[in-house]
Specification:
Layout: H1 3-12, H2 25-72, H3 77-98, H4 107-134, H5 137-143, H6 147-158, H7 165-184, H8 194-218, H9 224-243, H10 256-280, H11 286-291, H12 295-310
Helix pairs in contact: 1-2, 2-10, 2-12, 3-9, 3-10, 4-8, 4-9, 5-12, 6-8, 9-10
């Protein structure tokens, strides 16, 4: 506030030529207030960026359930996952090169790659791919609601964070809901074995919880670009090995729309969603970032309903 008297004096002082001041004191204070409001707006916008990024990442992840369900009916799931990783890696390589992040093999690079990479995308995508073959998109989206609670339990066990009674009550209610959903689910064309599919989706959530904790730790030393890039490269090697096995059906043709959805999964989901989440988790507490995952079931049901209505 001490700057205001100086601003008043500056606005009222006469010019050497005796001409009128360009800005009166009132005008100058108006400009000052506008500048202050603009500064606060920029500050608030910067503070909100991690939360906007998290919301966008959740919307992208929700759309991935629908995209995967669609392309799995056309291509072998392992082929889709391999193509998804390769596309994300190709998109990231120029960025990594420009950022001078050469992916030389070293102990530190292996430490960064093996932890989150094995949890997600390797084991996570295998479980989720099989889950979507046996359960519906809506049920798989609802299973993701257990992830914030799994992260809270993992943080208590491995990071020594204490959880209150409300958290334990939430855990009990969530698991009871998942159990009821799985046991009461009936077989249908889109969900031939919901019990098995929901169990596989829950195993994917265990991998995702491990990914969140490891990424939070690594984000203090590595950029989101580095973590996402090495994840994609490791996933390409992992699923490339699976595709080379004789029991994988390679596509004989590439229909336009399914192929376009595969590109979306690689560039939009693997690159976009994971990149946004890795960046956001370095800016906000891990429990808060995990809480945003509760948006995935909501977005998934809305998107699935929109797609069902359109067809």
């Amino acid at each position: 506030m001490a700057i205001l008297p100086s601003l008043l004096w500056w606005g009222q002082r006469p010019l050497a030529s005796g001409a009128m001041n360009i800005l009166t004191a009132r005008e100058f204070i108006s400009v000052y207030n506008i500048g202050m409001m603009a500064g606060y707006a920029v500050f608030a916008g910067c503070c909100m960026l991690p939360y906007l990024a998290l919301t966008t990442a959740m919307l992208l992840w929700a759309s991935s359930f629908i995209a995967l369900k669609y392309v799995f009916a056309v291509f072998d799931p392992l082929v889709v996952l391999f193509a998804r990783m390769v596309i994300a890696s190709l998109c990231l390589l120029p960025l990594l090169w420009r950022a001078s992040l050469a992916l030389a093999v070293s102990a530190r690079r292996l430490e960064m790659a093996v932890g989150p990479g094995l949890a997600e995308p390797c084991v996570y995508f295998l479980c989720e791919a099989k889950a979507l073959q046996y359960t519906s998109v809506s049920q798989a989206g609802i299973i993701t609601a257990t992830l914030p609670l799994l992260v809270a339990v993992s943080a208590m066990l491995f990071l020594k964070e204490r959880q209150g009674r409300q958290m334990w009550l939430g855990i009990a209610v969530s698991f009871a809901g998942v159990a009821w959903l799985s046991l009461s689910g009936e077989s249908s064309q889109s969900a031939p074995n919901p019990l098995l599919g929901n169990a596989l989706e829950f195993m994917a959530m265990l991998c995702a919880a491990a990914y969140v904790l490891i990424t939070k730790k690594l984000s203090a030393r590595y950029s989101a670009l580095s973590i996402t890039g090495i994840q994609s490269l490791l996933g390409s090697l992992w699923f490339g090995a699976w595709v080379a096995t004789p029991w994988v059906s390679l596509p004989t043709s590439l229909p336009f729309w399914p192929s376009l959805w595969v590109v979306y999964l690689g560039a939009g989901i693997t690159l976009g969603a994971y990149g946004l989440y890795s960046w956001s988790v370095s800016k906000v507490p891990v429990s808060m970032a995990a809480a945003f995952i509760n948006l995935i079931p909501v977005f998934t049901i809305i998107l699935a309903g929109a797609c069902w209505a359109s067809t």
